[in-house]
Write a structure and sequence with these properties.
The complex is a heterodimer of chains A (65) and B (259). Helices cover 11% and strands 37% of the residues of chain A. Chain A has one helix and five strands, in the order E-E-H-E-E-E. In chain A, strands 2-1-5-3-4 form a five-stranded mixed beta sheet, with no helix packed on it. In chain A, strand 3 (32-35) and strand 4 form a beta hairpin. Chain A is globular, with a radius of gyration of 11 Å. With 259 residues, chain B is α/β, with parallel strands linked by helices. Chain B contains nine helices and eight strands. In chain B, helix 1 (25-35) packs parallel to helix 9 (217-237) and helix 4 (112-124) packs parallel to helix 5 (137-145). Chain B starts with 14 loop residues before the first strand and ends in a 22-residue tail after the last helix. Classes of the chains: A mainly beta (65), B alpha/beta (259). Strand 5 (55-63) of chain A pairs antiparallel with strand 2 (39-46) of chain B.
Protein backbone atom coordinates (compact mmCIF):
# COMPACT_ATOMS: atom_id res chain seq x y z
CA UNK A 1 0.00 0.00 0.00
CA UNK A 2 0.98 3.62 -0.33
CA UNK A 3 1.62 5.72 2.80
CA UNK A 4 2.98 9.19 3.45
CA UNK A 5 6.04 8.75 5.66
CA UNK A 6 7.21 12.07 7.08
CA UNK A 7 5.66 13.75 4.07
CA UNK A 8 7.20 11.43 1.45
CA UNK A 9 5.25 8.79 -0.43
CA UNK A 10 6.40 5.24 0.33
CA UNK A 11 5.24 1.75 -0.56
CA UNK A 12 4.90 -0.61 2.37
CA UNK A 13 3.19 -3.91 3.08
CA UNK A 14 2.09 -3.96 6.70
CA UNK A 15 -1.05 -4.61 8.68
CA UNK A 16 -0.32 -2.25 11.54
CA UNK A 17 1.93 0.63 12.51
CA UNK A 18 4.52 -1.56 14.27
CA UNK A 19 4.96 -3.68 11.15
CA UNK A 20 5.17 -0.59 8.96
CA UNK A 21 7.97 0.86 11.10
CA UNK A 22 9.84 -2.42 10.93
CA UNK A 23 9.51 -2.48 7.14
CA UNK A 24 10.57 1.16 6.82
CA UNK A 25 13.97 0.75 8.54
CA UNK A 26 12.95 1.91 12.02
CA UNK A 27 13.98 -1.22 13.86
CA UNK A 28 15.72 -0.45 17.19
CA UNK A 29 15.38 3.31 17.03
CA UNK A 30 14.00 5.69 19.64
CA UNK A 31 11.15 7.45 17.92
CA UNK A 32 7.65 8.71 18.63
CA UNK A 33 4.89 8.14 16.12
CA UNK A 34 1.69 9.76 14.95
CA UNK A 35 -0.86 8.39 12.53
CA UNK A 36 -2.95 10.91 10.61
CA UNK A 37 -2.06 13.58 13.13
CA UNK A 38 -2.85 11.53 16.23
CA UNK A 39 -0.14 10.37 18.64
CA UNK A 40 0.23 6.59 18.77
CA UNK A 41 2.13 5.45 21.90
CA UNK A 42 4.81 2.82 21.51
CA UNK A 43 2.74 0.08 23.12
CA UNK A 44 -0.25 0.70 20.83
CA UNK A 45 1.58 0.52 17.51
CA UNK A 46 0.98 -3.20 17.06
CA UNK A 47 -2.74 -2.80 17.56
CA UNK A 48 -3.06 0.26 15.31
CA UNK A 49 -4.07 -0.81 11.79
CA UNK A 50 -2.86 1.22 8.82
CA UNK A 51 -4.57 1.78 5.52
CA UNK A 52 -3.69 2.95 2.06
CA UNK A 53 -3.13 6.70 2.08
CA UNK A 54 -2.33 7.00 5.80
CA UNK A 55 0.08 9.70 6.93
CA UNK A 56 2.74 8.43 9.35
CA UNK A 57 4.98 10.81 11.26
CA UNK A 58 8.12 9.40 12.86
CA UNK A 59 9.93 11.84 15.14
CA UNK A 60 13.19 11.60 17.04
CA UNK A 61 15.21 13.79 19.42
CA UNK A 62 16.71 16.79 17.70
CA UNK A 63 18.48 20.02 18.62
CA UNK A 64 16.14 22.68 19.96
CA UNK A 65 16.06 26.05 21.69
CA UNK B 1 16.19 34.06 51.05
CA UNK B 2 14.10 31.01 50.15
CA UNK B 3 15.21 29.51 46.89
CA UNK B 4 12.45 29.00 44.37
CA UNK B 5 12.41 25.56 42.79
CA UNK B 6 11.30 24.44 39.38
CA UNK B 7 8.60 21.80 39.87
CA UNK B 8 10.48 20.65 42.94
CA UNK B 9 13.81 20.63 41.10
CA UNK B 10 16.70 22.68 42.44
CA UNK B 11 19.15 24.10 39.94
CA UNK B 12 22.47 25.48 41.13
CA UNK B 13 23.25 26.81 37.65
CA UNK B 14 20.49 29.13 36.49
CA UNK B 15 21.59 29.26 32.87
CA UNK B 16 19.36 26.99 30.79
CA UNK B 17 20.77 26.35 27.36
CA UNK B 18 19.30 25.50 23.97
CA UNK B 19 21.05 22.86 21.88
CA UNK B 20 20.43 24.14 18.33
CA UNK B 21 22.62 25.92 15.76
CA UNK B 22 26.05 24.98 17.16
CA UNK B 23 28.88 24.54 14.65
CA UNK B 24 29.13 20.87 15.68
CA UNK B 25 27.81 18.43 18.30
CA UNK B 26 31.26 18.41 19.91
CA UNK B 27 31.17 22.19 20.36
CA UNK B 28 27.70 21.95 21.91
CA UNK B 29 28.90 19.28 24.33
CA UNK B 30 31.93 21.38 25.20
CA UNK B 31 29.75 24.43 25.89
CA UNK B 32 27.46 22.46 28.19
CA UNK B 33 30.28 20.79 30.09
CA UNK B 34 32.48 23.84 30.58
CA UNK B 35 29.65 26.17 31.62
CA UNK B 36 28.23 23.65 34.08
CA UNK B 37 24.74 23.93 32.60
CA UNK B 38 22.33 21.51 34.28
CA UNK B 39 19.33 21.71 31.96
CA UNK B 40 19.13 21.92 28.16
CA UNK B 41 16.24 22.26 25.76
CA UNK B 42 15.69 19.76 22.99
CA UNK B 43 13.17 19.20 20.25
CA UNK B 44 11.55 16.57 18.07
CA UNK B 45 11.90 16.43 14.32
CA UNK B 46 11.28 13.93 11.54
CA UNK B 47 13.68 10.97 11.63
CA UNK B 48 14.95 9.19 8.55
CA UNK B 49 15.14 5.42 8.92
CA UNK B 50 18.38 5.52 6.94
CA UNK B 51 20.31 8.44 8.42
CA UNK B 52 18.96 8.18 11.98
CA UNK B 53 20.49 11.54 12.92
CA UNK B 54 18.34 11.87 16.00
CA UNK B 55 19.71 8.72 17.61
CA UNK B 56 23.29 10.00 17.76
CA UNK B 57 22.14 13.37 19.06
CA UNK B 58 20.06 11.78 21.83
CA UNK B 59 22.96 9.56 22.86
CA UNK B 60 25.22 12.60 23.10
CA UNK B 61 22.70 14.47 25.30
CA UNK B 62 22.31 11.45 27.57
CA UNK B 63 26.08 11.19 27.89
CA UNK B 64 26.15 14.79 29.15
CA UNK B 65 24.01 13.74 32.11
CA UNK B 66 21.89 16.91 32.13
CA UNK B 67 18.16 17.44 32.59
CA UNK B 68 16.26 17.81 29.34
CA UNK B 69 13.39 20.18 28.65
CA UNK B 70 11.73 19.23 25.35
CA UNK B 71 10.00 22.03 23.47
CA UNK B 72 7.04 22.32 21.13
CA UNK B 73 8.87 24.78 18.89
CA UNK B 74 7.20 25.56 15.62
CA UNK B 75 3.74 24.53 16.78
CA UNK B 76 1.05 27.03 15.81
CA UNK B 77 -2.05 25.27 17.12
CA UNK B 78 -3.17 23.75 20.39
CA UNK B 79 -3.54 20.34 18.79
CA UNK B 80 -0.04 20.40 17.30
CA UNK B 81 1.51 21.48 20.58
CA UNK B 82 -0.39 18.92 22.68
CA UNK B 83 0.40 16.08 20.27
CA UNK B 84 4.07 17.09 20.14
CA UNK B 85 4.18 17.18 23.95
CA UNK B 86 2.83 13.64 24.14
CA UNK B 87 5.39 12.45 21.63
CA UNK B 88 8.17 14.22 23.54
CA UNK B 89 7.11 12.66 26.83
CA UNK B 90 7.45 9.21 25.34
CA UNK B 91 10.76 9.76 23.59
CA UNK B 92 12.56 11.79 26.27
CA UNK B 93 10.99 10.06 29.25
CA UNK B 94 10.16 13.33 31.01
CA UNK B 95 6.92 15.04 31.91
CA UNK B 96 8.60 18.45 31.54
CA UNK B 97 7.60 20.39 28.45
CA UNK B 98 8.56 23.85 27.25
CA UNK B 99 5.25 24.86 25.76
CA UNK B 100 5.38 27.08 22.72
CA UNK B 101 2.28 27.94 20.73
CA UNK B 102 3.49 30.40 18.15
CA UNK B 103 1.01 33.08 17.09
CA UNK B 104 2.88 35.01 14.47
CA UNK B 105 5.96 34.30 12.36
CA UNK B 106 7.67 37.70 12.18
CA UNK B 107 8.16 38.05 15.91
CA UNK B 108 7.48 34.44 16.96
CA UNK B 109 5.40 35.81 19.78
CA UNK B 110 3.20 33.31 21.53
CA UNK B 111 -0.48 32.86 20.80
CA UNK B 112 -1.39 33.35 24.44
CA UNK B 113 -4.97 32.15 23.99
CA UNK B 114 -3.80 28.85 22.52
CA UNK B 115 -1.02 28.72 25.10
CA UNK B 116 -3.42 28.84 28.04
CA UNK B 117 -5.70 26.24 26.45
CA UNK B 118 -2.81 23.86 25.69
CA UNK B 119 -1.32 24.40 29.16
CA UNK B 120 -4.58 23.37 30.80
CA UNK B 121 -4.87 20.21 28.69
CA UNK B 122 -1.28 19.22 29.42
CA UNK B 123 -1.23 19.94 33.15
CA UNK B 124 -4.49 17.98 33.50
CA UNK B 125 -2.63 15.13 31.82
CA UNK B 126 0.24 15.23 34.30
CA UNK B 127 2.75 17.37 32.41
CA UNK B 128 4.99 19.93 34.09
CA UNK B 129 4.49 22.84 31.74
CA UNK B 130 7.06 25.58 31.24
CA UNK B 131 5.10 28.08 29.11
CA UNK B 132 6.85 30.49 26.77
CA UNK B 133 4.71 33.59 27.27
CA UNK B 134 4.74 37.40 27.31
CA UNK B 135 4.85 39.79 30.28
CA UNK B 136 1.04 40.06 30.27
CA UNK B 137 -0.03 39.65 33.91
CA UNK B 138 -3.53 38.45 33.06
CA UNK B 139 -2.23 35.72 30.78
CA UNK B 140 0.32 34.79 33.44
CA UNK B 141 -2.45 34.47 36.01
CA UNK B 142 -4.46 32.23 33.69
CA UNK B 143 -1.41 30.03 33.08
CA UNK B 144 -1.03 29.61 36.83
CA UNK B 145 -4.75 28.84 37.11
CA UNK B 146 -4.23 26.22 34.41
CA UNK B 147 -1.68 24.51 36.66
CA UNK B 148 1.66 25.91 35.48
CA UNK B 149 4.21 26.28 38.29
CA UNK B 150 6.84 28.10 36.23
CA UNK B 151 6.39 31.05 33.85
CA UNK B 152 8.78 31.97 31.04
CA UNK B 153 8.21 35.48 29.66
CA UNK B 154 10.21 36.47 26.62
CA UNK B 155 12.99 39.02 26.86
CA UNK B 156 12.77 39.87 23.15
CA UNK B 157 11.84 37.97 19.97
CA UNK B 158 13.49 34.55 19.68
CA UNK B 159 16.94 34.73 18.14
CA UNK B 160 16.99 38.54 18.05
CA UNK B 161 19.65 39.13 20.70
CA UNK B 162 18.00 42.40 21.69
CA UNK B 163 18.00 41.77 25.42
CA UNK B 164 15.20 42.86 27.76
CA UNK B 165 12.77 44.85 25.62
CA UNK B 166 10.27 45.46 28.38
CA UNK B 167 12.03 45.90 31.69
CA UNK B 168 8.96 47.46 33.27
CA UNK B 169 6.84 44.47 32.27
CA UNK B 170 9.39 42.01 33.63
CA UNK B 171 9.72 43.96 36.88
CA UNK B 172 5.94 44.10 37.27
CA UNK B 173 5.71 40.36 36.69
CA UNK B 174 8.36 39.69 39.33
CA UNK B 175 6.56 41.89 41.84
CA UNK B 176 3.11 40.51 41.05
CA UNK B 177 4.06 36.83 41.21
CA UNK B 178 6.55 36.96 44.06
CA UNK B 179 6.44 33.22 44.78
CA UNK B 180 6.44 31.89 41.22
CA UNK B 181 9.66 30.71 39.56
CA UNK B 182 10.19 33.01 36.58
CA UNK B 183 12.55 32.41 33.67
CA UNK B 184 13.42 34.95 30.98
CA UNK B 185 13.24 32.92 27.81
CA UNK B 186 14.45 34.16 24.42
CA UNK B 187 15.92 37.29 22.95
CA UNK B 188 19.06 37.57 25.08
CA UNK B 189 22.20 38.44 23.16
CA UNK B 190 24.83 39.29 25.76
CA UNK B 191 25.82 38.13 29.23
CA UNK B 192 24.87 41.59 30.53
CA UNK B 193 21.27 40.86 29.45
CA UNK B 194 21.30 37.70 31.54
CA UNK B 195 22.78 39.57 34.50
CA UNK B 196 20.08 42.22 34.17
CA UNK B 197 17.32 39.61 34.18
CA UNK B 198 18.74 37.99 37.30
CA UNK B 199 19.21 41.39 38.99
CA UNK B 200 15.45 41.91 38.51
CA UNK B 201 14.90 38.80 40.60
CA UNK B 202 14.33 36.30 37.84
CA UNK B 203 15.16 32.75 38.75
CA UNK B 204 16.84 31.66 35.54
CA UNK B 205 17.49 32.59 31.93
CA UNK B 206 17.02 30.39 28.89
CA UNK B 207 18.88 31.11 25.70
CA UNK B 208 20.35 29.43 22.67
CA UNK B 209 21.43 31.60 19.74
CA UNK B 210 23.66 33.97 21.73
CA UNK B 211 25.87 31.04 22.70
CA UNK B 212 25.52 28.85 19.61
CA UNK B 213 26.33 31.69 17.20
CA UNK B 214 29.20 33.16 19.24
CA UNK B 215 32.71 32.96 17.79
CA UNK B 216 33.62 30.64 20.68
CA UNK B 217 30.39 29.06 21.98
CA UNK B 218 31.96 27.39 25.02
CA UNK B 219 33.62 30.62 26.13
CA UNK B 220 30.35 32.49 25.66
CA UNK B 221 28.43 29.85 27.63
CA UNK B 222 30.89 30.32 30.50
CA UNK B 223 30.44 34.10 30.25
CA UNK B 224 26.65 33.71 30.41
CA UNK B 225 26.90 31.33 33.38
CA UNK B 226 29.12 33.80 35.24
CA UNK B 227 26.82 36.72 34.42
CA UNK B 228 23.78 34.75 35.57
CA UNK B 229 25.53 33.95 38.84
CA UNK B 230 26.59 37.58 39.32
CA UNK B 231 23.07 38.88 38.65
CA UNK B 232 21.57 36.37 41.05
CA UNK B 233 24.08 37.29 43.76
CA UNK B 234 23.37 40.99 43.23
CA UNK B 235 19.62 40.48 43.58
CA UNK B 236 20.11 38.50 46.77
CA UNK B 237 22.46 41.17 48.12
CA UNK B 238 19.72 43.81 47.73
CA UNK B 239 20.52 46.49 45.14
CA UNK B 240 20.35 50.15 46.16
CA UNK B 241 17.42 52.30 45.12
CA UNK B 242 17.89 54.48 42.07
CA UNK B 243 17.91 58.23 42.76
CA UNK B 244 17.17 61.11 40.43
CA UNK B 245 19.84 63.39 41.83
CA UNK B 246 23.46 63.03 42.92
CA UNK B 247 24.30 62.34 46.52
CA UNK B 248 27.94 62.53 47.62
CA UNK B 249 29.36 59.24 48.73
CA UNK B 250 32.28 60.91 50.53
CA UNK B 251 31.13 62.46 53.83
CA UNK B 252 30.62 66.23 53.65
CA UNK B 253 31.00 66.59 57.43
CA UNK B 254 34.55 67.49 58.39
CA UNK B 255 35.57 68.76 54.99
CA UNK B 256 38.24 71.46 55.30
CA UNK B 257 37.27 75.06 54.60
CA UNK B 258 39.89 76.16 52.09
CA UNK B 259 38.35 79.08 50.23
Amino acid sequence: MRVLLNGDEQQVEAANLAEALEALNYRDVIVATALNGEFVPHDRRAETPIQDGDAIEVLAPMQGG
Amino acid sequence: MTERQFYGQSLANRLLLGTAQYPSPAILADAVRRSGVEMVTVSLRRESGVERAGQAFWQMIRDLGVLVLPNTAGCHTVKEAVTTAHMAREVFGTKSIKLEVIGEDDTLQPDVFGLVEAARILTDDGFEVWPYTTQDLIVAGKLLDAGCEVLMPWGAPIGSGQGLNDVFGLRAMRAHFADVPLVVDAGLGLPSHAAQAMELGYDAVLLNTAVAKAGDPAAMAIAFANATRAGQAAYQAGPMEVRDMAEPSTPVMGKAFLL
